[in-house]
UniProtKB/TrEMBL annotation:
<keyword id="KW-0812">Transmembrane</keyword>
<feature type="transmembrane region" description="Helical">
    <location>
        <begin position="202"/>
        <end position="228"/>
    </location>
</feature>
<dbReference type="InterPro" id="IPR039859">
    <property type="entry name" value="PFA4/ZDH16/20/ERF2-like"/>
</dbReference>
<dbReference type="GO" id="GO:0019706">
    <property type="term" value="F:protein-cysteine S-palmitoyltransferase activity"/>
</dbReference>
<feature type="transmembrane region" description="Helical">
    <location>
        <begin position="169"/>
        <end position="190"/>
    </location>
</feature>
<feature type="transmembrane region" description="Helical">
    <location>
        <begin position="144"/>
        <end position="163"/>
    </location>
</feature>
<keyword id="KW-0472">Membrane</keyword>
<comment type="similarity">
    <text>Belongs to the DHHC palmitoyltransferase family.</text>
</comment>
<feature type="transmembrane region" description="Helical">
    <location>
        <begin position="60"/>
        <end position="81"/>
    </location>
</feature>
<feature type="domain" description="Palmitoyltransferase DHHC">
    <location>
        <begin position="101"/>
        <end position="240"/>
    </location>
</feature>
<keyword id="KW-0012">Acyltransferase</keyword>
<protein>
    <recommendedName>
        <fullName>Palmitoyltransferase</fullName>
        <ecNumber>2.3.1.225</ecNumber>
    </recommendedName>
</protein>
<dbReference type="Pfam" id="PF01529">
    <property type="entry name" value="DHHC"/>
</dbReference>
<dbReference type="GO" id="GO:0016020">
    <property type="term" value="C:membrane"/>
</dbReference>
<keyword id="KW-0808">Transferase</keyword>
<dbReference type="InterPro" id="IPR001594">
    <property type="entry name" value="Palmitoyltrfase_DHHC"/>
</dbReference>
<feature type="transmembrane region" description="Helical">
    <location>
        <begin position="21"/>
        <end position="40"/>
    </location>
</feature>
């Protein structure tokens, strides 16, 4: 009975840990499908524009743009999850342990500076930034490039989707700011269940709302990590107001995104070798917290 209960709990824990990944995937493809529908069917609005040659080019450019962003989001997310940021398979060395090295009693090994143990991943992670619940993976030295690129294209994709959904907001508010239109924008689920709107109207309102909320959330994450990148910090170091590893803007870009930092954001398949090893870091400031 106890073993059955533990198996059920383990299975439930596994499902809950993977739920944000499935939800993210569903929302990304739902938004892409809705925007594709808007481009192919709803726009341009004028009948004579729909028959013009410019209409075909307009649709082609929009579709290529959005699927370029979708491809980068998916490929960066896949490489982020598949790239192991932990100390597994890394020779840490046993001689000359300097300042910043610690002993992890869980992994039973010495760990280098900026490395810390993740209790979700159950392993120490090199240059650990944080554990990303949306991907179920830690952000560390080897996969930070893919994480930041994924955020970049999610931000640009949501901005694009929000602009494309402006017509949806205008249609909902065409009769003015009424109680019905406000409720449809704020609580579309309740409007659908109560039978006040059709499933089609609910789908458009829900995805338009998701674009706005998602854009605000991703903007906060993206610009916060750009701020950390410029300062040469991790999220954990930001909590303690330490940035002793800052190498200047260009140095931070190279040591975070690789030697081809100016190109690697265009496509995750562009090789951008890291100048460091995730173990040894150049110290340019005090290691003591200022708070």
């Amino acid at each position: 009975m106890t073993s059955l209960r533990s198996k059920v709990l383990c299975q439930a824990e596994r499902i809950c840990s993977n739920l944000p990944v499935f939800l993210n995937t569903f929302l990304v493809f739902s938004i892409t499908g809705e925007v594709s529908y808007l481009v192919l069917v709803e726009a341009p609005l004028e009948a004579e524009q729909k028959k013009s040659e410019w209409s075909g080019w307009w649709k082609a450019i929009h579709l290529l743009s959005q699927y370029f962003m979708l491809g980068n989001i998916c490929w960066n997310a896949l490489l982020f999850v598949k790239t192991n940021p932990s100390i597994k398979g890394v020779f840490l060395g046993g001689d000359g342990l300097g300042q910043g090295w610690r002993y992890c009693y869980t992994c039973e090994t010495h760990t280098p500076p900026r490395c810390s143990h993740c209790f979700d991943c159950k392993v120490c992670v090199l240059r650990r930034d944080h554990h990303c619940v949306f991907f179920g993976q830690c952000v560390g030295f080897r996969n930070y490039r893919y994480f930041l690129s994924c955020l970049l294209f999610m931000w640009s994709g949501l901005l694009y989707a929000m602009v494309m959904n402006a017509e949806v907001f205008m249609v909902i508010l065409k009769e003015g700011v009424t109680l019905h239109s406000i409720l449809l924008l704020l609580v579309p689920w309740i409007m659908l269940v109560s039978g006040q709107v059709s499933a089609r109207a609910f789908a458009f309102a829900f995805i338009a709302d998701t674009c706005v909320v998602g854009f605000l959330l991703v903007s906060a994450f993206f610009f916060f990590h750009l701020f950390l990148l410029c300062r040469g910090q991790t999220t954990r170091e930001w909590y303690s107001s330490r940035h002793p590893y800052s190498l200047g803007l260009l140095g931070n870009l190279r040591h975070t995104l690789g030697l081809r930092w100016y190109l690697c954001w265009l496509c995750p398949l562009i090789p951008s070798p890291m100048p460091g090893d995730g173990i040894n870091f150049q110290v340019t400031g005090s290691l003591e917290p200022t708070r």
